[in-house]
Design a protein that fits this description.
3-stranded mixed β-sheet, 3 strands
Length: about 170
C-alpha cells in the first residue's frame, strides 16, 4: 500500500539529574508560541531534572514550495534597495545579502500554516516522548535503588565479619 506521508515529526526528550526542574524546549520555526505548552507537558510529568525537548520536522513534499518565488526574492531586493537609498548607505544588495535573510528562506505563510496544522501531532508525539522519558527514569531509579540496596547488604555483611574477627 502506498503511504501518503508528507511530514516526519521527531520529538526527543532527554534529561540529566538536577536538583530542580529545568526545561529547555526547541521547536521548529513557526511553533515557538507552543514552547510553553511543551514546557507544561514536562512539568506535569516530572518533578526534577534538567530536561531538554527537541522537536524536528522534515517535509517530504516537493522541495519547490520551500524555496521563495522569484517575485518574492525580487520584492525583498527592491525593498532593501529602497532602504539602502533612503538611508544613503554604500554598497549594493547582493545575493549574499538576500541569503542572510532567514525569513525569506524559511518559507511563506502557507508553510507556516502547514507547520501550525502539524501542532496536534507534535503535541501528541511530545507527550509520548515525555511519558517514555518518565518511564525510563523510573526504571533507572529502580535499578539504582537495587544497586544501592545490594551495596548496603555487602557493607552489612562486611561489618558483621569485622565484628566477629575484631576480638582476635
Amino acid at each position: 500500500a502506498k503511504r501518503d506521508r508528507t511530514l516526519d515529526i521527531e520529538v526527543e526528550a532527554r534529561s540529566v539529574n538536577h536538583r530542580f526542574l529545568s526545561v529547555k524546549v526547541s521547536l521548529p520555526d513557526g511553533l515557538s508560541r507552543h514552547e510553553v505548552d511543551v514546557d507544561q507537558l514536562v512539568r506535569d510529568a516530572l518533578d526534577r531534572g534538567s530536561v531538554t525537548v527537541n522537536v524536528t520536522m522534515k517535509s517530504h513534499d516537493d522541495d519547490d514550495h520551500v524555496l521563495p518565488t522569484l517575485e518574492r526574492v525580487k520584492a525583498y531586493r527592491d525593498r532593501l534597495e529602497a532602504i539602502r537609498k533612503k538611508l544613503r548607505l554604500k554598497g549594493s544588495v547582493t545575493m549574499e545579502t538576500l541569503l542572510a535573510i532567514p525569513h525569506l528562506w524559511n518559507g511563506d505563510s502557507d508553510e507556516s500554516s502547514a507547520t501550525e496544522k502539524a501542532w496536534p501531532a507534535i503535541q501528541e508525539a511530545a507527550l509520548k516522548a515525555v511519558e517514555d522519558l518518565s518511564a525510563a527514569r523510573a526504571k533507572e531509579g529502580l535499578a539504582i535503588a537495587k544497586d544501592v540496596l545490594a551495596r548496603l547488604d555487602f557493607i552489612d555483611d562486611a561489618a558483621r565479619r569485622i565484628r566477629v574477627r575484631a576480638p582476635a
